[in-house]
């Protein structure tokens, strides 16, 4: 049965692990102070984590008069998870350790035109290859997180209505992938996974209210407040690409009219480039892969090709309109630009979005909103998905119990 991952970890074990990760080396006394759990609870939780090998003791802190404090660190490589960003035009796979560090990655072709069973075999092979190449012990792998474009309509364990991946409609992806890999699977929206990934990449503060705008084949956004992703009632919150910017505009596949995605998504910008006259100098734009084409267009724009610059700037201005709406609705402190669509032209998008936010948001006199590039635009969603798999494992069943 597919699990769309619910909350960021909130159980005590998870909180303790988060604090150790953020402050290591730390001690039980500091954990009591940071969590407001009782000393007895912390002693018990830390004992469990030591038994499971997730945490280790690393000597003692110099005494400041009281009893010496035993220092604790995460055992970073005691657990690894695999994250998959499953896209129409590309697939990114990462392996991340317990500290949220990426320890291996690969980028593969997209799966828009593949049969679902072929996709499962393709992913299972790629994951197995990554595990082998990294020399990872399979018994330490928590599971696989899969980040996909929305909308995710999951009914009875089957995917439905996934944008740009209609070939997966009616397919039980998680069950099939679990069978093929022998690893537990969690699924989430790619923009939400990217927002979680940005925290782990160090782009954002856990306590901030921030949004990630995710540009791949489509346009999405993920929201995090106080370390918690906001998913709405069906994990379909933040569908920025389907905010209407023209109510008389053309009908979108979603049923709305004049959606942002119809005028600003990479396939639309790339098509404009492909239609440009030869004199525009855009002849080298890929005819096959929209992400490659977007990347080439971005490179040409940053080299000063006027036609490319006009197309990317138009896309950036339109997206900036959407970002102003996002900020007006959710009053975030920061917007992170993530996703493969930004890999070669983030600077143009950043400038347009920052200018729009500085001059057009309702609360601009109250606080500023900064726009920053992702620390790793291509990896953010896959990393976020990997960390969701880690959390799922940690919350589901303590490893020590499983071994019995
Ligand atoms: Zn739409």
Shape: globular
The largest β sheet comes out as: 5 strands, mixed
CATH uppermost class of the largest domain: Alpha Beta
**Estimated radius of gyration:** 22 Å
Cα distance spanning the termini: 25 Å
Helix content: 40-55%
What is the architecture of the largest domain at the second tier of CATH? 2-Layer Sandwich
User: Could you name the ranges where pLDDT drops below 50 across 5 or more consecutive residues?
Assistant: 5-9, 397-404
The helix-strand sequence is: HEHHEEEEEHEEEHEHEEEHHHHEHEHH
Structural class: alpha/beta
Give the oligomer, counting copies of the same chain as homo and different chains as hetero.
single chain
The averaged pLDDT comes out at 91
**Percentage of residues in strands:** 15-25%
CATH superfamily of the largest domain: ATPase, nucleotide binding domain
Number of strands: 15
In this entry the ligands are: zinc ion
CATH fold node name of the largest domain: Nucleotidyltransferase, domain 5
> What's the arrangement of strands in the largest beta sheet?
6-5-4-7-10
What count of domains describes the coordinates?
3
Task: Note the total helix count.
Answer: 13
Family: Belongs to the ROK (NagC/XylR) family.
Pfam families: ROK (PF00480)
InterPro entries: ATPase_NBD, ROK, ROK_cs, WH-like_DNA-bd_sf, WH_DNA-bd_sf
Protein name: Sugar kinase of the NBD/HSP70 family, may contain an N-terminal HTH domain
